Amino acid sequence: MGGENGKSGLRLWRNARLATMAYGAAGLGTVEKGAIAARDGLIVYAGVEAEMPAALRQDAETIDCEGRWITPGLIDCHTHLIYAGNRANEFEMRLAGATYEEVARAGGGIVSSVKSLRAASEDELVAQTLPRLDALIAEGVTTVEVKSGYGLDLDNEKKSLRAARRLDGERQVTVRTTCLAAHALPPEAKGDKDAFIDLVAGSILPAVAAEKLADAVDGFCEGIAFSPEQIARVFDKAKALDLPVKLHADQLSNLHGAALAARYGALSADHLEYTDEEGAAAMAKAGTVATILPGAFYFIRETKKPPVDLFRRHGVKMAVATDSNPGTSPLTSLLLTMNMAATLFGLTVDECLAGVTREAARALGLLDKTGTLEAGKSADLAIWDIERPAELVYRMGFNPLHARIWRGQ
Ligand code: DI6
Ligand code: FE
Question: From ligand 1's centre to the CA of 225, what distance in Å?
Fold first, then answer.
């Protein structure tokens, strides 16, 4: 499907079935006998082929999709893709009956990833991350969010974000970076969480903002991490630096993280297993997206499910993401993630597909640029060898991607 653009600079994908995912359209915004035209990396037409302006046919490089389905390129809006080594040893210990505390005492947990990340160079981080990124890309991912959070000091948070920023130079993909310095307490903080939050707000965030290393700021609001008051201090600084916020909220207990995120107008609140109705209502009012992360739920054998019905009832938009990380979600398949969201949490096929396209774009503040097949958006497409979109959610461990287009190429 390669080749140069036509003389007009136009590329045309015809004889396709489209799941446009356009907001307000019924279901998937399906168009039978559809076509997409793109110029300069942007969609100029997406709709019924027979209704396409004739001018768009002239000199276009035309690709016959032979009836295949086209969806927006997939978006993984929550990953911790940058890390060094892995924690398969902890997985084995847990399978042998060790508790999380025993694993932590043996030097495991987030702190072990902090140690390996600090020992790795920026080049090594990029090299170790690329196979994970390639796995996502192979399934049609065209945009990915990447968090720091295993550095936990100024130099290593910056190193992580610089490595994340380099990924889009290595691959044809859009990368959004998030500073998650408030992820865990590093060993040198010796238990003083408030002093560490001083460091995050007083020096790490301002430096990261000055060097434009992050597109957003995240935190982990949890008993084992930081309190709502501590997260609020991080968010106050983020707001002062003009950076949007998002939050790991209510994953293991209900600290009212969802409501806190909403109060700050967060792009998203993520995990949300323990979120209550007040939290859901606050998110709806603020337009904060609920990012559902079934990989972590599955991997740590959580039993409390996120309140999907509350989100529906209050009109909270739901995104679906891998949470790819070495400790609780060593997952690099957004297709499998959709299956988990459907099977474990009861999301519908339409909700799953919207969750990895339109709503994931919304969760990144990119809805005006990508996430649906509409004129004016980036020509980020995934072309699939399937008979119906439900197959993308139904299969486990099978990749029907036929072609992936990023910014028209
Ligand atoms: N929630 C999680 O599940 C991960 N981070 C977070 O905030 C855990 C990350 C790890 O164990 O490495
Ligand atoms: Fe996470």
Answer: 10
